[in-house]
Design brief:
Belongs to the flagellar radial spoke RSP9 family. It is found in: Cell projection, Kinocilium; Cytoplasm, Cytoskeleton, Flagellum axoneme. Keywords: Cell projection, Cilium, Cilium biogenesis/degradation, Cytoplasm, Cytoskeleton, Flagellum. The protein contains eight helices and 14 strands. The protein has 282 residues and is an alpha+beta fold. The protein has two domains: 207 residues, no CATH class; 61 residues, no CATH class. The longest helix is centred in the N-terminal third of the chain and has 18 residues.
Amino acid sequence: MEVGQLSESLEYVSCSGVFIRPEKLEFLKNSLVVLQKENHFKKTYYWGKIIGSENDYHIAYGYIKDCIKDQIYYYSFNCLDWLLLPKVTRTARVLTPLASNLFQGNPSNVSIIDLADELFIHNLNEVTNILESPISKNLKEEDRLAVTIDMINKQTMVIPRGSLLRCQEGDIVENPAFSGCLNLRESVQLKSYLHARLPQAKCNDNLLKIYDYNYCLDFLDSIYADIPEKSWNLQLLSKNNTIILQNLCWPGMTFYHITNSPYYGSIYVGNGKRNFNVPFMV
């Protein structure tokens, strides 16, 4: 949620139970404005909150030029003081899905991960390299937080089709001409929404799925083909023609888009645990 539209965005997702106290919201907005100026960000966003047993992690990010590649993340406990989130490491990426305990709220807390019973989750070659390498199997919570945010972003962070475009230089920027989905019929179709991440599917795959393919707009992956099927819950609120998207694999992620308008945003409020039971629920 962009800091300039934070109050309005929270109203649109209030149907999902997301709420921030007014006094805390003012602290949050002011601190994000300061964070944006200090780091010379073009825009700053409130990503959401990961709930811990002792303290909660409030997450924010900003970018300078490329709105996907240049994202820099911060976390805070009081919505005033922001700490830089470390980069994702290869070891932490393997160990994080194996951590069964909840977040504690202490970034220096270390969890000992037992890999023996969970090797089937990951690529065997990657896990073998981790096991054979002279590294610790201890996972720092700060590193786990970075990986969890990265996983949630890659699987649930979405945008309306056409809201971002790729320049000739390769930079991904916001589309100044974006005015929202053209009509209600388009807005209730999953193919109208794209993953806000670097594309993972081949260019030809996206080309074959969209009849009016546009190279500058359709370079991202659509959520329509996500696995498992029916992992997205789409609702249309008739009161103000607002689309609400929620991902069943990561409970707590909520996306909204007001049809026929350029306004959209998303927020995550949850414990940072993935729901592996989705195939048995749909």
